[in-house]
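Q: How would the structure tokens look for this protein?
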Amino acid sequence: MVLDDRALEREMRLNQLYLAIVSRYRDYIEEMEHLSVAELSTLVIPKNPVIAKKADEIKSSFGMYNYVSNFYEASIIAFYFVKNEIMDAVMPLQFWLTPEETMTFGIGDVIDRNILLCSLLIALGNPSAKVLVSVKNSNRSILAYYEFEDRAYILDFSVGFKKFESRNELIKSLGLDDDTVAYEFNDIAYMDIA
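A: Here is the predicted structure in token form.
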């Protein structure tokens, strides 16, 4: 669908209007956003029908999907789906999207996209998948990781895939120290790690 100049201008003005409305009520919206950081695990929803359907679509690319033989490649497909098909957006307020909303709208911030990726990895059969958030000074790092066949793998939208010999080696590579706040979560648990 090609928008003519007038329709494009209308869309831009509508978006500016929506942004002005959201900005005006930002404090109220953020106050009503009741999830705490420790409750982020409730957003990881691998059994959601939209997430399960996407996981099944990825599995079907292997014919007869076998977790041991195909999970690693399936995780790469899931990673590139989220990286390339779900637009990154910086929201004007702190608001958590569900993975279903992130898929439906095809857009989300870095944490929304990582929560979607984690949900897909679990739906593909790997319950060890987690979202890991670390904050040091004003720098925040968010990525997904999983353990598979005695190794650990980081999936980072800015860096790509990295393989480690163990979860401990992966955690050590992040350079967490006393000035770092770090936590991880999936659909089962939330845990402070630094």
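The helical segments are 5-24, 26-32, 49-60, 67-85, 99-105, 110-123, 167-173.

The longest helix spans residues 5-24.

Upvote if useful.
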